[in-house]
Design brief:
about 800 residues; alpha/beta; 6-stranded mixed β-sheet; 28 helices; globular
Length: about 800
Amino acid sequence: MATKPATRSPGAHAADSHDLIRVHGARENNLKDVSIEIPKRRLTVFTGVSGSGKSSLVFSTIAAESQRLINETYSAFVQGFMPTLSRPDVDVLEGLTTAIIVDQQRMGADPRSTVGTATDANAMLRILFSRLGQPHIGSPKAFSFNIPSISGAGAVTLERQGKTVKERRSFSITGGMCPRCEGRGNVSDIDLTQLFDASKSLKEGAITAPGYTGGGWNTRLYIESGFFAPDKPVRDFTKRELHDFLYHEPVRMKIAGINMTYEGLVPRIQKSMLSKDPDAMQPHIRAFVERAVTFSACPECGGTRLAEPARSSKINGINIAGACAMEIRDLADWVGALDEPSVTPLLASLKHTLDSFTEIGLGYLSLDRSAGTLSGGEAQRVKMIRQLGSSLTDVTYVFDEPTIGLHPHDIQRMNDLLLRLRDKGNTVLVVEHKPETIEIADHVVDLGPGAGTAGGSVCFEGTIEGLRSSGTITGRHFDDRATLKEKVRMPSGALKVRRASTHNLRDVDVDIPLGALVVVTGVAGSGKSSLIHGSVSGRDGVVSVDQTPIRGSRRSNPATYTGLLDPVRNAFAKANGVKPALFSANSEGACPNCNGVGVIYTDLAMMASVATTCEECEGKRFQASVLEYRLGGRDISEVLAMPVAEAQEFFSAGEAKNPAAHAILARLADVGLGYLSLGQPLTTLSGGEQQRLKLATRMAEKGGVYVLDEPTAGLHLADVEQLLGLLDRLVDSGKSVIVIEHHQAVMAHADWIIDLGPGAGHDGGRIVFEGTPADLVATRPTLTGEHLAAYVGT
């Protein structure tokens, strides 16, 4: 017997009941059994102090599970080629949709990766030139700087009508790669003056490269080679002798009765130093490499990366290299002016992509800009380009601080884009600290109350009005506004910059005050980083802290990165009369079962590898015998599990008193990382935490000028005040601090503001204001002045 379906009220379709994303019992990283319901097809903003668990909930739980479930729909064969994702530590996740993650991860640093290749704009341009370019040189491959021109010929054997036949065949592929620089646009050369002092002989120590000084084997190899007189100054060498000294091919010879290989100094140094990752080098060797290796534009292609045939084909007098070098907004106008019915769909698609750049605030970029030189904010917005014209709907978009690196003038444009994605029927999840973006949310989730182990709970969820009156840290600080200083510091001198012309700068002359807090500001693309990193950062005595991420494995932690582990290990060794190496989980003290990692990874082919806590050391990473040694009543694993604030107190007095360790911990606490545990893997730190860890480490370096690039990135409203206090302490201790920043609280707190603009790209590159924040607010001559005046309420 057929059963009659239950009657349902009209309009209440079963499919319409799935309007929430339900998370129950989330425990990823520091989350404490978080249970929450997030409305679909709405804009939800996640707030909270740095390290409170926002990214753990949004990225590591919701987005990660969505991606894992999608990957599982592919065959086992295909999954074998995909990254393996483990299931997040959560009891229930319901109502998930396809997640598209737009994060701040830097784009590939390969010099062949450009803005054009990352967004497919280059691919469309190549097709355009292959169809319309004159003279016609070939297919789209002929315009690609990633494809070399190759040809070949030879005999092939065929079976034809029962007979074996040999035929001669030839083939050729016309690519666009410049043969000299192999599509990189620049060539590296070695500055010989950094390798040797030509006024000295080899016996007098002419070779100045690290490892070649003194009487070591490297030096003896050249002195006793017999190719030149060791007492003769290098400048007096004949052409033959100089060639043998610098470029001689490898040859075996006996030196002091020992068989050795003699090789010219240049190839020897290239193999021993220049082939290594600079970040893995010792500091003095890295400094030498930075001095000795010079990069210059390829003389054959002029830095365009393209071969001569690709540069010869033009449309309306412009070749593809010229088109890629234009600012994107100018290129959009050029493409819009082309009228060719045969490629109308292609032109429309290309124009839409280029217009999306302008719409998102990146019209000042060019398609040939290396992807690795983009800031985190620029990289994130370039990734957004693909989503703006997408026909997909009912998708979950996940953004990580999309306003990072944006001037207040540009934030409204970003807000409009987020709302547009929502209005197409998508769920938009945003991790954000800026009040201007939090205010447009339909739903707010505030995590906290603190950071690290003090966070991981939902403190509030609801509307903006509810957040303001909630009493949480975010709610209390939501309407905070920094005030202008009553009295600014007088400069003790000036750092002079003359005729700066890096990128879009127009022969800028500026005197940057010393002994003061100087803020360099301006809209995105106005030339701030070009001015400071191009003309200030490389000088002697300048300590620069930029936004590049810290490289480290899961074995790296704040204790190893800051150098704290060395005095701690030595203190343990001295107190117990044993070797310091025992107190390193990467050396003799490591647990033999897990090799000092604390967990054991089981590879399950295309399924996610499983991490289980090591049974022998119980995740402590050290041998049991090492944990018997104590300092101040604690073993080494207990010390590494301490938060910075607790460790600072531990090493300040008693048996464990250690001034060297205490000084490092004080710097970590100064930058607001008091909650971080000393042994927490660097791979689990947020972008803001990594930058502040870097700042704490660089503060120990001797330098009179500190350059900070957007130090408020990833900082909660409550933490900005602490950062301002740190900057004040640095200046009051006699340092000069130069900050590239968009945050109005930092601008208001400055002693001096340098504003670049008035626009971005070729509309910028000029100094539009120099003076005190009070003068900027009073006169409001620029966009920055207008926004700062509105911020301080004048």
